[in-house]
Amino acid sequence: MGVMTLPDQMTAICIAEPGGPEVLQSCRKPVPESGPTEVLIRVAAAGINGPDLAQRRGHYAPPPGASPLPGLEVAGEIAAMGEAVTGFVPGAPVMALTNGGGYAEYVAVPFGQVLPVPHGWSLAQAAALPETWFTVTQTLVMRAGLEPGMHVLVHGGAGGIGGAAIQICSLIGAHPIAVVSAADKASYCARLGAIATIDRTRENIVDRVMALTDGHGADRVLDIIGGALTAVNIAASARGGHIVQVSTLEGATVNFPLRTMMAKDLTLSGSTLRPQSAQTKAAIATHIRDHFLSALSSPAWVMPDLTTFPLDEAHRAHAAMEQRIHRGKLVLLTEFGAASQAS
Length: 343
Known about the structure:
Number of helices: 12
Shape: globular
Oligomer: single chain
């Protein structure tokens, strides 16, 4: 695998025990080796995502064979490659969906989950893309069959998943309607491409969706909330609609109107990304590369908002995410990443 001289040890963030943000602690770990079909990435930045918080709390165990360290998306440069890796060269800037281990200075990733950094993007910006774009591409696009002209109700529009959904809908030619909780978040979603926003703190979601779609309803719904919102999603859906559940921030168990769901011929699907096979993740990466990547390099592309933290302050980043008041994504920077940002 040798491409350059690598250290034996690296700084990483470990979960001391299940609990609050304070259980995230800086630790020293051996630099991982890349297998025959893996690349070793020198991490510049690692994105923070909901599954990281769930893992820290003890609610989202790594699948067999995956790194026990948190962190599901990174950007950096290729430090080494396995002998079966094709399409990449040492030193190339890349972004990747990891199988864990992203909160570290190095991480080994199957090369099918690695993508080039779009032209003009910083490594911090690139690190904020994979987890959310892979999730939305898999669920809303590849599974739910998102098509041009569809109206899409996007909950949590100003967050990472919501922002990715808005921009992917816009690229495909669908019409994203973002649900938000504040005026500044509504403005942010509009900048990303939402055709309209709904303030859930003062507006009736179903009434607004029906007004915005001339009584048709939402053809697709992307929900990260769950709980009582499931019934709202059913009421807001168009006949033949598809509700995509990717998280349950406010309730994993719910009663909802099955007869209405049947009468509307609705589909409700749920999925988690981390346990998917390497083949499935590689197929999602291929879809992103073939259908979306060129658009991301456009000078006119709108970058989502980022808030960065040093790697050893991962606990602060988790605490900030739990407050749910940020826009866009939270990203950790290694020393290499901080130097890259400054240069």
